[in-house]
Design goal:
mainly beta; four-stranded mixed sheet; two-stranded parallel sheet; 1 helix
């Protein structure tokens, strides 16, 4: 048995283990863990992970947890895992498995509970956490993608995105 009951930091534990194909996490006691940053970063050969027994209630740092685990197709997360916070912090960039139907791509920006990104000539706006999201209200100012207005010719809204204002929303797009 691997006793991890006193461990607070599991950051980069399997970082760069590109040939790691499996890991048995069933005996891990994660009740004291506060950081899982980059825990499986670039573990490209992993195809499945079962973390259901983890206690993630104290975890506050989740950035890059599954970053570029490109073959990771099946992840079982514990109920205490804050998937929304993980998504905001890029925990799933480049990972095959995603906890949401509209995966947040690398290089995208968060705005409210949605992400946005110019992809080729298309402005894409999608919910970050599930099927629906809400854009933050920019009032009488400009939306965060305003400076990218000449880079897109199409707008694609995925899922349900609620807007509280449409003031200058796509002004000046090409």
């Amino acid at each position: 048995t691997f006793d991890t009951s006193a461990v607070a930091n599991m950051s980069s534990m399997f970082h760069g283990c590109t040939n790691l194909e499996s890991v048995d996490l069933s005996s891990f006691n994660t009740s004291a863990v506060t950081s899982m940053n980059n825990m499986f970063y670039c573990a490209e050969s992993l195809t499945e992970l079962n973390m259901e027994n983890f206690d993630a209630s104290k975890v506050t740092s989740l950035g890059g947890t599954f970053y570029h685990c490109s073959n990771l197709a099946d992840v079982k997360l514990p109920e205490s895992y804050d998937a929304n916070k993980a998504i905001e912090n890029g925990a799933f960039f480049g990972c095959e498995w995603q906890p949401t139907p509209y995966p947040r791509p690398e290089g995208s920006s968060m705005y409210g509970s949605c992400w946005w990104q110019v992809q080729d000539d298309t402005l894409v706006i999608a919910p970050a956490f599930g099927d629906a999201g809400e854009l933050a209200d920019w009032g009488t100012g400009v939306p965060p993608w305003y400076n990218s207005r000449t880079q897109y010719k199409k707008v694609e809204v995925r899922g349900t995105v609620r807007a509280n204002t449409c003031h200058r929303m796509f002004e000046g797009c090409s």
